[in-house]
Amino acid sequence: MSMDKFDIKYLSNKTGGDISLNRILNQYVPKTELSKFILEKALKGTVIYKFGDDVYSKNRIAILSGVHGNELAPQIASLHIMEKLNSLDSSKIDGIIYIIPFVSPYSSMRNSRYFDGRDLNRMASISGNISNDLVQYFKNIKVDAVGDFHSTAPNANPGVEAVFSTKKPSKLSYEIASHISENVGSKLIAYENAGNVFNGALEDELNLNGIPAVTCEVLSQNGHLNNKSLKQSLLQMNSYLDYFNMIL
Ligand SMILES: [Zn+2]
């Protein structure tokens, strides 16, 4: 199978890592040509994949996973979503879906929350790192929404399956989160204003920059995953796509 059809772009060449060295994560990587291709590309950095055709006035939305490299369920869920989109004729995708399955392959390789000792989900307001690069990139290409998919350990914050959102300045953040919460049963967490509670979080920075964003969390021990957390992460992603009727 040829992978030439993939319109890919590197957003960083400093973040590369060999995902297959994370044995726990690698066990769940689909044994397909596509996943092999994605892992190969991740060796050199952060890659954004694009599915669907550019049509004016159609929605363009993004899915992120692996901002925290030790939160494994959403990274595998992204690969499953990509397998599904890859199997569809592009005419079945109503708009464009951007997917970054591994925001920081280096962190994923090391099964670590941190990149260079830093939490990438607290760095989005500071230039010179992949989190802020993502915000700038999504601003430039004017995406309609970003879903950032994580997992949370039982004793951490939020410690339950949840969707974070804010009502201002991007009300759509709250509306997307409400939809996912109703659909999947994840707890709805809605703050009034972006940027008040989590300084430098990707979701907050995106919302502050006028790009509606949500953070989805499934319950899983850090550095591990199981079929239940994988299933819930997939349900959250599908519900997010469904909010925008992305798949015909
Ligand atoms: Zn996280």
From TrEMBL:
- Specify whether Amino-acid biosynthesis is a keyword of the entry: no
Q: Does the keyword Metal-binding apply?
A: yes
> So which cofactors does this thing need?
Zn(2+)
The EC number(s) this enzyme carries: 3.5.1.15
Q: Which UniProt keywords apply?
A: Hydrolase, Metal-binding, Zinc
Residue ranges constituting the Succinylglutamate desuccinylase/Aspartoacylase catalytic domain according to the UniProt record: 59-243
From the UniProt record, which GO molecular function terms apply? Answer: aspartoacylase activity; hydrolase activity, acting on ester bonds; metal ion binding
> What top-tier enzyme class does this entry carry?
hydrolase
PANTHER family, alphabetically? BLL3975 PROTEIN (PTHR37326:SF1)
Q: Which residues form the signal peptide?
A: none
> What's one Pfam family the UniProt record gives for this protein?
AstE_AspA_cat
Q: What's this protein's name?
A: Aspartoacylase
